[in-house]
Amino acid sequence: MNPRLKEKYNKEIVQSLMTKLNFKNINAVPKIEKIVLNMGLGQEGLDKKKMEICIKDMSSISGQYPVKTKFKKSISNFKSRKGSNAGLKVTLRNHRMYEFLDRLVNIALPRIKDFRGLKDSACDKFGNFTFGVKEHIIFPEINFDKVETIRGMDITIVTSSNSKENTISLLKEFNFPIVVDNEKKKKKFKKIVDIENKEEKPEKG
Question: pLDDT digits over 130-142, tens only?
Fold first, then answer.
């Protein structure tokens, strides 16, 4: 049986995006290809017991066993050695991807304290949407009473879209709470104004 959101995509979202984005070919409609979860552990990656706890938590959250990521080079300030454990990573596709997406949007994100939405600036020019979660306990699979350390993770939604606008439209169809990043727009506007003022400034002498 297909996950609820996969059914919704095939039966509703595809047609909706074809109309909104003016696509003539159904194959041109953007779709979510995979979801990547990353949990950085730093020095704690060297602690076997803590690593086992994190593996258990990541497995519960994603429904899939994570792989260990390694440091690519030694960093003395962080006491990390090249090849030692840096963290955990899970790549979700197909059914598990849609099931995770459902829990993320409808259960986990609304549980974030003072949550005001995900900023649209989290989307890059390649059509991928990346954001951080500060507390992994927002996921219902984690028993708060048994958690020793609250950890954060990065979540990347990889899409077939080739533009930021199309990715945002796709994710909004899945009810992603995306909001405009006014701070970034203000900085961009200030930069433009500063450039214009510099150009208009008369030369000395």
Answer: 999 999 999 999 9
